[in-house]
Every structure is written in C-alpha cells, then in structure tokens.
Hints:
Shape: globular
Distance between the termini: 55 Å
Low-confidence stretches: none
Strand order of the largest sheet: 18-22-23-30-27-26-24-25
Strand content: 25-35%
Largest sheet: 8 strands, mixed
Number of strands: 35
Radius of gyration: 29 Å
Number of helices: 20
Structural class: alpha+beta
Amino acid sequence: MIKITFPDGSVREYAKGTTAFQIAESISPRLAADSLAAGVNGDTVDMTRPIDHDASIKFYKWDDPEGKHAFWHTSSHLLAEALEALYPDIKFGIGPAIENGFYYDVDTATPITEADLTVIENKMMELARNKEQLVRTEVSKSEALKTFTEKGDPYKVELISDLEDGTISFYTNGSFTDLCRGPHIPNTGFIKALKLTSVAGAYWRGNEKNKMLTRIYGISFPKKSMLDEYLAMLEEAKKRDHRKLGRELELFTFSQRVGQGLPLWLPKGADLRDRLERFLRQIQKEHGYQQVITPHIGNIELYKTSGHYAKYGKDSFQPIRTPIEGEEYLLKPMNCPHHCEIYRSKPRSYKDLPVRLAEFGTVYRYEQSGELHGLTRVRGFTQDDAHMFVRPDQLLEEFEKVIDIVLYIFRTLKFDKYTAQISLRDPNNKEKYIGSDENWEKAENAIIQAAKEKGLNTVVEYGEAAFYGPKLDFMVKDAIGRSWQLGTIQVDYNLPERFDLTYKGNDDKLHRPIMIHRAPFGSMERFVAVLLEHTAGKFPLWLSPEQAVVLPVSEKYNDYAAEVVAYLNKHDVRAVIDDRNEKVGRKIRDNELKRIPFLLVVGEKEAAERTVSVRAQGEGDKGAMTLDDYCRYMQSLVEAETEKHE
Length: 646
C-alpha cells in the first residue's frame, strides 16, 4: 500500500500502482471526469500514470495552468497526427504547448500555407472524436534512435542523441508516435473546438544556420463557446496591436536602414516616453534615489567579471575591437555591472547605506530576427533600471519600498489585475546559476517574506530566477485578459562578491552589501507597447502627448483658435490646432480616431464670449467653458489620475 496526501492535508491509502485517475474517481466521478493532469510530488504527470510510492497529489482542471498546458500539449500531438495523415513525407521537429495554445515545427516537401489550415483543422477534429488515448512507453536510447532512423526523421534523431539513456519516452495517439516527456490529457475526446491560427517560418533549434522549418500555431478548447470568445478577443487584439496604433498615432517607426529591432521614437512617442520617465524620476527622487548615467559600451572584462558575458555573450552583438591588440568592448547587455563600478568609486560606510542608483539605461541584445516583434522584442531597449546596495538589516524594508513603487505605478496607469510571481532557481539544475546555496536561500526567503508582508497574490515558479538571484516578477493582465510580465525586483548576493563591493561596518570591519535590482516598467519599449494595447491608444489624460485639439468651424476663426492654443499651452494644457479647410464634423471624426482626449470647437459665439465648446473623447459634449475654467477642469482631472496612494 502507498499513502497519498491531498491538498487539504488528509491522507488515504491505496494499492501500489494506482493511477491518479483512479484516485480522483475514488473521491468523485466528476473530479475524475474534469481532471486533465495530476501533480504528484510537484511534478505534473498523466492521469493514467501509476503511482508506486507515497506521494502528495493535486488534480489539475482546465482552469489550472498545468491543465491547459497538458491540454495544448496533447493538441500539438493531434496536429502532428493529422499532418502525418495528410502529408506522408513530413518530418517533425518539436511541438510544445505555449502560453496560449501550441505549435508544431515541421519539414515537408509540400509547402503548407494559411489556405491549407481548414483542411488540417477538419482532420484534427475527425481524429479527436475517436477519443484516442495518449499511451506512454519508456524506451532505451538505442530503440528510440532505431525507430526514428528507420522513419527517416533526422530532427528526432538529433534530439534523441542529446538525451541520456533511461530518460526517454514515447507517446502514441492513434497511428502517431512521438518522442515526448509528457504530460498529456487522458484522450483526445476532451478537445471539442480548435483553430489553427497561423503559419510561420522557424529555424530548427532557433539557429539561423539551420534549416527553416514551417511552424503551425493553433489553439484548442474543451467547449466551442470558449473558442468563440477567444476568436472575438483576437479580433479585439488586432485593433489594439501596438504596431498598428504606433503608426496611426505617430509614436514610433522602424527603418531597415537603421537596422532590425532598433525603434525610432517620433516626436509624439518621445514626448510620451519622456513623460513616463519624468513620472518615475519624481517618484525616485521622493524615495532617495540618485540619478546616474553610464556608457553604452564597456570593456569586455567588465561583463566577464559580472557573468553577463557567459550568460548573454551568444545573444549580444559581436565585440568591438579597438586598434590596441587584444582590447575588446561590448555593447552593454545590462546596466548593473556599471552601477557596481559606481558603487566601488569611493569607500562606503554603514551610515551611507542604502545607496540607491537609478538610470534610464539603454542595453543591447542580438535577438534572432524571427523573434523580433514591434516594441515588445527589440535589439536595443531602455530599462528603468535602479540598483540598491543595502545592509542585511535593511534588505526587507528596502524591498518592500520597491513593491510600493511598483503598485503605485500600476494603480496610476489602471493596471488593476496582476499577480506577483516569485521566480526561484531550478533546484534540479543549480549549475545554471552563480553563487552559494546559502546566499540563494537567504535571497529567496527575503522575497517570499516581503511578498507575504505586503499581502500580494503570488505564484511560485521554479527555474525562472535570474542567473545571479531570485526575482519578484509582476504579471499584469491587460484590458482584454492577456498576461504580460511588467516590472521586476531581484535580490542579489552574488554581484557584490564578484565585484568585491564592501562597506565599513560600525565594528570597523569590511562587510559585503546586498544588491537589489529593480525595474518597475521593465523596459520603456515593452511598457509603452503594453500600455498602448491595454488602453487601445486612449492614454490617461496626464500622459497623452496631445490633450486637446482646437477645431475652428471655419477659416474665419483660425486666429481665435490659435490664441486658444497659445493660452492653453502657456497654462500646461498640451493643445494643437486643426485648421484644415474641412467641415467641423469631419474634423471631429478624424481627431476622435487620433484618440485626443478633448476636442474644443470654436466659432462665432465662442470667439465673442472667449470660450470653447468642450467635447470629451467617448463622452460627447461637456458644454461651453471659459479658458480659465477649462484649464482648472483639466488640472483637476490630471490631479485625480495621479493622486498618491498610501
């Protein structure tokens, strides 16, 4: 017999070899029917996997991330089964579940295009209705190599060659067998609705030197109504696409001559970005941060010392070689090594700490061209970076103050739905990280305690830590329910050791400070992209590059309109004039599309009375106001948007 511990702490005994499905069924037939996968001692496994030792157990349904992952993983195998039936010469790369759905990378002599997706979808649904079970078999490395060598699938052979004997498993659904660790849902009958969303190119194993494969993306659901809702959300997402809005609102552009992944900020975008920076600079000033500026490049030895060269070297631009033999510089991949050197620039006492250094610093990573995406994935981006150097007794309080800053920013910008992800190192793969177990334990415990004391809604993710320390990552849901990672706070015992950072304690001995890394926005580029999509381009009034547009009803009133614009700009209202020779109705429609918050119509009556007729974006007419009244009204709206929260 084995003992099974449930989430509520209760314990039951079962015969050795009992499956997770059988355990769920012993509790409730409904639980067994709804469970897609199980958590056994923290590992997600198939419901049909026998359990042969004492274990804790959880059951994952559709609403659980683990349940969705298993569902979409099985859907990728269903896609592969359909493709194999339709394209007999096909060869398979990898087919994982992703954040929203799944994909499979394939190599076929017959090109697969968007026009073919409906036929593939129909074949998938035909196979799904057969309720094919996902059958796992464990195989030796030699057997696995033989299977896929005979099948003529070089990609699977390459993957198997990298695996250790005794760790290899196959999964079979219907006539399709794949190299796979799992887990999977019990059978394909759970899949009631699906949509193949796009076809793209992807280099094998993400290496531009390898062959370009065809990547087919899809998504699936246990109910058709869920698919309908998702497709409606996709349509809304297209309207909110920051690349489209960025063009329409004249915020940023890209140029092949400048280079891929290197955004050019246009005047309105630069104004928006500058306003965000000033907003955060003011918060930082109130919290005792000191602004610094560091170069865009650094000697390669700097990044070798920090560990960034080993970590990011392959994703960085090639080193810059100087006329001096052996001297190399690197476009900086991170700001933190530079800030460590600023800290080292003079002796520090325990009385000086915490030292808080802040910089809007631009960093560079050579992302694969196929992974670049508007402002969310670029090769040059500016982080709202800051590094605090603290004593051990200051760590918790300082960390909690940073949480306060992040939450204030979220409230001001109406990011109301968020989860704090405690990102810890992978306990089974510690060689990915630098530093001692003792320091990692201290850092992880500090983050867990700070999040608890602040009452944050948290999830724990193992393996998501930075290479030098654990993180608190803020996962924000936008207006249409998509999740984005915005803002991060990290505890780091390791860079202070690598850079030999010290301070003199009250015992006259040298001690090592602890470093906190923090970026509430994450990067200016990504934050603006997410904000654009969250607001659909209708920015908060305080942030809008243009807060009001003055619309003269005819050319006779252009002079008065110009006076109004000058007066408003003098009184801190950002206003422009639309003096085109068009009817006022056309001007209203055009400027509403530009998402300018207020439209101010002026004609004979307004010119005579020195007023403006106020029209609010999405709300309609607000009536006539004197210029002074309108300025006071605008000031009150801005103050309400940026009011401090305790």
